[in-house]
Specification:
Blueprint: E1 3-10, E2 18-24, E3 31-40, H1 43-50, E4 59-60, E5 64-72, E6 84-87, H2 97-100, E7 118-119, E8 126-127, E9 137-141, E10 145-147, H3 154-157, H4 163-174, E11 182-186, H5 190-202, E12 206-211, H6 214-222, E13 227-230, H7 236-243, E14 249-254, H8 259-268, E15 269-277, H9 291-297, E16 300-303, H10 311-323, E17 335-337, H11 342-349, E18 357-360
Helix pairs in contact: 4-5, 5-6, 7-8
Cofactor: Zn(2+)
Family: Belongs to the zinc-containing alcohol dehydrogenase family.
InterPro entries: ADH-like_C (IPR013149), ADH-like_N (IPR013154), ADH_Zn_CS (IPR002328), ER (IPR020843), GroES-like_sf (IPR011032), MycoS_dep_FDH (IPR017816), NAD(P)-bd_dom_sf (IPR036291)
Length: about 375
């Protein structure tokens, strides 16, 4: 029987995010209903609200979530009722050309629930990143559920569902940071600081955090950065070279998504070094680089999609690192809030002092 629950919805561009009654259908084949425990407030949700991703309003916001599976549809084998799960937006199909090449982390045909959640009047909702977890319950494809241990803080591990995974993965998966290498991260918001933590987890010995905000640089140092650069006061390229023996970093991760910071990343790497773009640019942005410099500096220029993660592989591994004390996911949880506080959490993002506000929905 369909269920009525409360969820946070935005009905039009820049409209306030408000609590609404939504209808959750029974799961069809391959689907699961998940009772939400926690959900991080991510910049992606703000982009949905502002119209920066699409115009398929109304949106059911929220996607960095943990929960407990309460119903499964026919044929579901990935998870069972009662499983604690982290939700993800890369439910691999197993059949597309990426999956066929043995690269499911790049799956080009990821799955979402086929049915739609709706408002009480029948208006279909577009769930953020195919999840929609600022709600008491949500409906997803079963492949969007990754089972994890239930003896960990859901608010912390749920952040692996998007931003923290994107940053860590930019280091360990896309950047392929190795023990003893040097890494610079330009932009120390949540994703950038997660990239710092990922570099530390991978064994980098020089980790340089770069930002125009000295408080963010200090936060990055708490998560593993060995050096900090205030790029409002210092030229970041010169500073990174100075901290790496005059050569530049082995890996430079650009976590801002702007042409000027990408150019800094390009010139701040060592010869044959790697540049990783994990910051998300706008459609209007363009970059111009001398082609001879692209050729002459060698190495690679990479983009990181969701940290090039495979949730079934990476989520349990990173939860284990968290339990072992090697990855401080707790530090990313700045505050715990209720469903009704989402709009205020969006306002706090503009101040740049919050790594993550986490909505606590259900019982732990």
């Amino acid at each position: 029987m369909p269920q009525k629950v409360q969820g946070i919805v935005v009905t039009a561009q820049d409209a306030p995010a408000t609590a609404e009654t939504i209808i959750i259908p029974d799961p069809a084949a391959g689907e699961a209903v998940v009772d939400i425990i926690s959900c991080g407030v991510c910049h992606t949700d703000l982009h949905y609200k502002q119209g920066g991703i699409g115009d398929e309003y109304p949106y059911l916001l929220g996607h960095e979530a943990t929960g407990v599976v309460s119903q499964v549809g026919e044929g579901v084998t990935e998870v069972a009722v009662g499983d604690r799960v982290i939700l993800n937006w890369r439910a691999v199909c197993g059949q597309c050309r990426a999956c066929a090449k043995g690269q499911p982390q790049y799956c080009f045909n990821t799955a979402n629930a086929s049915q739609k959640m709706t408002l009480e009047d029948g208006t279909e909702l577009s769930p953020a990143l195919g999840i929609g977890a600022f709600a008491e319950k949500t409906l997803v494809a079963a492949g969007q559920c990754t089972k994890v241990d239930d003896d960990v803080d859901p608010a912390a591990v749920g952040l692996l569902g998007c931003g923290v995974m994107a940053g860590i993965g930019a280091s360990i998966n896309t950047g392929e940071v190795k023990r003893g290498e040097s890494v610079a991260v330009i932009g120390c918001g949540g994703v950038g600081i997660a990239a710092v933590a990922g570099a530390a987890l991978a064994g980098a010995t020089t980790i340089i955090a770069v930002d125009i905000d000295p408080e963010k640089v200090e936060m990055a140092k708490q998560l593993g950065a060995t050096h900090g650069v205030n790029s409002r006061e210092q030229d970041p390229v010169e500073a990174i070279r100075e901290l790496t023996g005059g050569f530049g970093a082995d890996v430079v991760i650009e976590a801002v998504g702007r042409p000027e910071t990408y150019e800094q990343a390009f010139y701040a790497r060592d010869l044959a070094g790697r540049v990783v773009l994990v910051g998300v640019p706008t459609p209007q942005m363009k970059i111009e680089l001398p082609l001879l410099d692209v050729f002459g500096r060698g190495g690679s220029l990479k983009s990181s999609w969701y940290g090039d993660c495979l949730p079934s592989r990476d989520f349990p591994m990173l939860v284990d690192q968290y339990k072992l004390g090697r990855l401080n996911l707790d530090a990313f949880v700045t505050e715990r809030i209720g469903l009704g506080d989402v709009e205020a959490a969006f306002e706090k993002m503009h101040g740049g002092k919050v790594l993550r506000s986490v909505v606590m929905v259900g019982e732990q």
